[in-house]
Amino acid sequence: xxxxxxTELESRLMLGTSQYPSPAILERAFKASNAxxxxxxxxxxxxEGAGQPFWDIIQQLGVRVLPNTAGCHSVKEAITTAxxxxxxxxxxxxxxxxxxxxxxxxxxxxxxxxxxxxxxDEGFNVFxxxxxxxxxxxxxxxxxCEVLMxxxxxxxxxMGLNNEYGxxxxxxxxxxxxxxIDAGIGLPSHASRAMELGFDAVLLNTAVAKAGDPVKMAxxxxxxxxxxxxxxxxxxxxxxxxxxxxxxxIGQAFLS
Amino acid sequence: xxxxxxxxxxVVGLCVASELLxxxxxxxxxxxxxxxxxxxxSWWAGGMLAPFCESESAEEEVCRFxxxxxxxxxxxxxxxxxxxxxxxxxxxxxxxxxxxxxxxNHELVSGKAVASLxxxxxxxxxxxxxxxxxxxxxxxIALRDLTNRLNQAGVKISTAEPPKDSTKxxxxxxxxxxxxxxxxxxxxxxxxxxxxxxxSFQRPIRLxxxxxxxxxxxxxxxxxxxxxxxxxxxDSENVSVRSMLELLSAAYALNPSFGEAEILEIGVDxxxxxxxxxxxxxxxxxxxxxxxxxxxxxxxxxxxxxxVADLLLDDTAGDFVDENYH
Lengths: 256, 326
Prior knowledge:
Chain A is α/β, with parallel strands linked by helices. Chain A has helices at residues 23-33, 52-59, 75-89, 109-121, 134-142, 164-173, 188-196, 206-209, 214-233; strands at residues 3-4, 7-8, 13-16, 37-41, 64-68, 93-96, 125-130, 149-150, 180-182, 201-204. Chain A has 9 helices and 10 strands. In chain A, the strands form 3 sheets. Chain A has a 5-stranded parallel beta sheet. Chain A has a 3-stranded parallel beta sheet with strand order 6-7-8. In chain A, α3 (75-89) packs across α4 and α4 (109-121) runs parallel beside α5 (134-142). Chain A binds chain B through residues 19, 21-25, 27, 44-48, 50-54, 57, 156, 158, 210, 212, and chain B through 57-59, 94, 98, 101-102, 185-186, 188, 210-211, 231-235, 238, 240, 242, 273, 275-278.
């Protein structure tokens, strides 16, 4: 059984909490998604507890809260936000984002490793938002991370798994490290694919929040993650070039 | 004749008063100030009457009841019926397509049509959505016009405490009413007012963006309102550099001539909202509370005012009446 810093999660879907049409729809989407974890940002809302009414709504969802450092572009910002998150949500879990480029929102790997080291030294359980880069993954594990969160594609792009080869390589290089595909998921089939590849969970936000019907899409994502997980456990058949009939043809009256 | 006390002289309080007046009800209004001003969050609004655009992210009721707004306002203030225009930079084509899919009553127009509708947008956008049946008002003029009309009809806005006698009470205090309406939250919005004679627009322009929908509303005489952020925060005082950067760069993207505009005002306030971001009318201990208009103050205040009047006078519960609240 996979555990994330010693915690077993009932569902392998993690859902973000931003960009929903209203908190009421966010609540209904969470219910429909059966998600076990809610990520929440603090950087912009945070000043002196001003985001509390919204955070109360998140805490009342009844799922585990994974605060994030979304919107942080430097190690210093990320550390400050992590400290605030620990205080607000009373958790050592932190999804660490250190953004390196505003167009692609891709992680600044150097800042990420540095911040991860500082935070794990302070006792945080760091979930680093990283790329599929093997060396970066190795450095993050070296910095004390026990979970990795490689992207599928840039945040909010909905492109799915951009570099399947890279993700497969990462999965097989570190078979025992819990990994969550974070960012880039647009469709339930993307989420299924991530699970089929052997990733342990999927984290998404925009695909649900910005769908025309967020609640229905949340339900679809939930089923897709379950389907992908079951598939990865069910030892799927190998693809092959020639047909392999599922019923024998020899002995039938006519062969064509 | 019923005698009614309305507490709160923001857009909701004034609209309720105005609606009750047309039904021959004598009202008195109570507020901290005798005139609408920066203390009311409706002072900082955009004043777009854009029910169709709003259906991109709002519940169906916003579009349905919002369509009543322009006609209601037209009897009381100057309504500019020139529609609204929605554009996106070419790299945000996905957001444009999504907006088109989720809204109705629009026409997809070419760059040429954009240029004829708004010459100062020409050559910048190859396509746009034109919402011909939308309108806009100047919120501050609308508040002033409502107040003047009420004053002329003998309605006073008093800073005194509302009487504790047998008059009916309607509470339209916005976020201040959270002492009673505990599920009300504040959603931060920041805006700017700028002035330039180098650019002229006829109608509100929305610029789509993956994270922040921004709009610019012409106020006439070279003045533009630029809004607005929507942040789940109750910090009602501080305007962030990032918000200003985002709003101003949106204006700059629409037309670089905005780069030389003067900044006249920077505003920040909290919109009162319930969990579903829809207005609610509740009866608690003989007081009627009308609140939670969120980003849709001017768009939904007319419908809310009508429903408050219906509830008060005919005991009829409209869609925004929340009878199940405990």
